[in-house]
Design a protein that fits this description.
heterodimer; A: alpha/beta; Elongation Factor Tu (Ef-tu), domain 3; Rossmann fold; Dihydroorotate dehydrogenase B (pyrk subunit), domain 3; 3 domains; seven-stranded mixed β-sheet; 17% helix; B: alpha/beta; TIM Barrel; seven-stranded parallel β-sheet; four-stranded antiparallel β-sheet; 31% helix; globular; binds flavin-adenine dinucleotide; binds flavin mononucleotide; binds FE2/S2 (inorganic) cluster
Chain lengths: 243, 303
């Protein structure tokens, strides 16, 4: 965990409501894919948790959707502006879970953390398949980025305007995989878990205050005991989740 | 050289800064950010006799200059705290700690205090009387002078450690309750706990918090907290730990001028994990600017 100041070096719109922000700063405490950062915004009391979409030695990429006043404020920020960010939060995905054919399933703003994960899996010599779900064609983002990594990408849209019509679980039918990684809205996580015979890891969201395990604001019950989504999560394994 | 030391019921604190209960866990998470031994002390998470999971989520909502929480006293229970948290705490915190205690019946308060009284790491018992009284019709212990005095009297019988009663601001007359606690033998008072508040999600047209209502804290409540500390200071002789919305060195000084001997910091720790460290580092310069040589001298200085 680290608190430091990042400078925006690139900020672009990916869809009408989704933005990619690339920041320069100290990323040394980001240790795993699936972790998140907590972003301070001026005039907002609580920080905003956003997944690490990608990072390297000195840059951090966040992909976020404008859903309220904080993310709206963020979307108006420009290159050169600075943000106070807590990094290295959460457990992240465990890549040593023993698998050969991993399937990544992302829904909406659950897609960003799977990008860094996909990159890491490719680096391990695997060829992940990514199923990305969106409402409609205009809302698709990061598809080409996953393809550039060498992943096979299958898109599902709820209205059928692109790719498979329906939910990610419709696009998952018939796919062969021996492990899954997923992030997205909770009903989707549940459906993905139910549709998969194999084990997997799921990334959860919860309203947070601290984001580093101090306030018990984000607790959930699991089969392995009470956990804090921010500290013991956001990634839980399929077997421990209590739906 | 300025002097930051204050005396609190026989304990000498290196400075008046005490992270507030529920906003500092057992200190472990913060010990990763800085050496928490620089604090005056800290108040650990509200402890009950039995383990509690607390309320369903969402437990957190934001508001202008503050937040709401409805954690619902999640804690592993007093026995677990004594068997696991306190021994672990020894590794990274070497000062007397403030043990925050909650209960839903008089017996529960008494038993918790008894067990924690036996722990040498505990310097002060801070008894949170904001919980509903299961035997008293569900009204919080802290909302009537009579039940507040009953809790005070009962716990004082089982401990030799200083007892601070933590007052709820959700009352018509906090002074009356403060006096009742003093008369019942309290060694000091902590105030304020959170104000009862609420937010509604406009899209769902339902309260944001699963518990519907929650405790409002953060900088927005500072004037209310300060006013209550000021009023209570006028009415009692026992020392006060003032809290509510404090987030800067100047706020600490203001709270002390109102009458606080020690100053607790809650929600601010959650958004800036190093806030207490920064305040301790900034206090000497602020004191010098204001011509304060010793913090001890300014307690209640605004009266
Ligand atoms: C671990 C984690 C990772 C996340 N990763 C991403 C990401 O990569 N991209 C992305 O677009 N979004 C992500 N989110 C969701 C993001 O945190 C919220 O969309 C954002 O906080 C909304 O802020 P706002 O001010 O625009 O909304 P408002 O509704 O105005 O916010 C009010 C309060 O509610 C909280 N809040 C609102 N919605 C959510 C939510 N869905 N989850 C948690 N808190 C919420 C805010 O943090 C704030 O405290 C993530 C959430 C978590 C918990
Ligand atoms: C997340 C959270 C949890 C809290 N838990 C407790 C608790 O267990 N016991 C208690 O006495 N007070 C608890 N409080 C109240 C604080 O200790 C403090 O009295 C209050 O928040 C006002 O201070 P602040 O404005 O600096 O946060 C909690 C506050 C917050 C924000
Ligand atoms: S948000 Fe504070 S413990 Fe998770």
């Amino acid at each position: 965990m680290k608190q430091s100041i990042f400078e925006i070096i690139r900020h672009e719109r990916l869809t009408e409501t989704v933005f990619r922000m690339v920041l320069k700063g100290d990323t040394s405490d980001i240790t795993a894919t699936g972790q998140f950062v907590n972003v301070q915004l001026s005039g907002k009391f609580l920080r905003r948790p956003i997944s690490v979409c990608d990072w390297d030695q000195d840059t951090l990429t966040l992909v976020y959707k404008v859903v309220g006043s904080g993310t709206e404020q963020m979307s108006r920020m420009q290159a050169g502006e600075k943000l106070d960010i807590l990094t290295g939060l959460g457990n992240g995905y465990n890549l040593e879970a023993g698998f050969e054919k991993p399937l990544l399933i992302g829904g909406g703003v659950g897609v960003p953390p799977l990008y860094a994960l996909c990159k890491a899996l490719v680096k391990k010599g695997l060829t992940p398949v990514a199923v990305l779900g969106f409402n409609k064609k205009e809302e698709i983002f990061l598809k080409e980025d996953f393809e550039k990594l060498g992943a096979e990408v299958i898109v599902a849209t709820a209205d059928g305007s692109y790719g498979v019509k329906g939910f990610v679980t419709d696009a998952m039918k018939g796919l062969e995989y021996d492990y899954f990684f997923t992030c997205g809205p909770e009903p989707m996580l549940k459906a993905v878990s139910a549709a998969s015979e194999c084990s997997g890891q799921l990334s959860f969201e919860e309203r947070m205050a601290c984001g580093f395990g101090a306030c018990m604001g984000c607790s959930c019950k699991t089969k392995y005991g009470n956990k804090r989504i921010c500290k013991d999560g956001p990634v839980l394994v399929k077997e421990e989740v209590v739906w | 050289m300025v002097n930051l030391k204050v005396d609190l019921c026989g304990l000498t604190l290196d400075n008046p800064l005490i992270p507030a209960s529920g906003c500092f866990g057992y200190g472990k998470e913060f010990a990763r950010w800085y050496d928490i031994n620089m604090l005056g002390s800290f108040s650990f998470k509200g402890t009950t006799l039995e383990p509690r999971f607390g309320n369903p989520t969402p437990r957190i909502a934001e508001c202008a200059e503050g937040m709401l929480n409805a954690v619902g006293l999640q804690n592993p229970g007093v026995e677990h705290v004594i068997a696991h948290e306190l021994p672990e705490m020894k590794e990274y915190f070497h000062k007397p700690v403030v043990a925050n205690i909650s209960g839903f019946s008089l017996e529960e308060y008494v038993r918790c205090c008894e067990l924690l009284d036996a722990q040498e790491q505990v310097g002060i018992l801070e008894v949170n009387i904001s919980c509903p009284n299961v035997h008293g019709g569900g009204m919080a212990f802290g909302t009537s002078a009579k039940s507040a005095a009953e809790v005070t009297e009962a716990v004082k019988k089982v401990t030799k450690k200083p007892v601070f009663i933590k007052l709820s601001p959700n009352v018509t007359n906090i002074v009356e309750i403060a006096k009742a606690c003093e008369d019942a033998g309290a060694d000091g008072l902590s105030l304020i706990n959170t104000l009862l508040g609420m937010r509604i999600d406009l899209n769902r047209r339902k309260p944001i918090l699963a518990n519907k209502m929650g405790g409002f804290s953060g900088p927005a409540i500072f004037p209310v907290a300060l006013r209550m500390v000021y009023q209570v200071y006028e009415a009692v002789k026992i020392p006060l730990m003032g809290m509510g919305g404090v987030q800067t060195a100047r706020d600490v000084i203001e709270m002390m001028l109102a009458g606080a001997t020690a100053v607790q910091i809650g929600a601010a720790n959650l958004v800036n994990p190093c806030v207490c460290k920064e305040i301790i580092e900034q206090l000497p310069a602020e004191m010098e600017k204001l011509g304060i040589r010793s913090l001890k001298d300014i307690i209640g200085g605004a009266h």
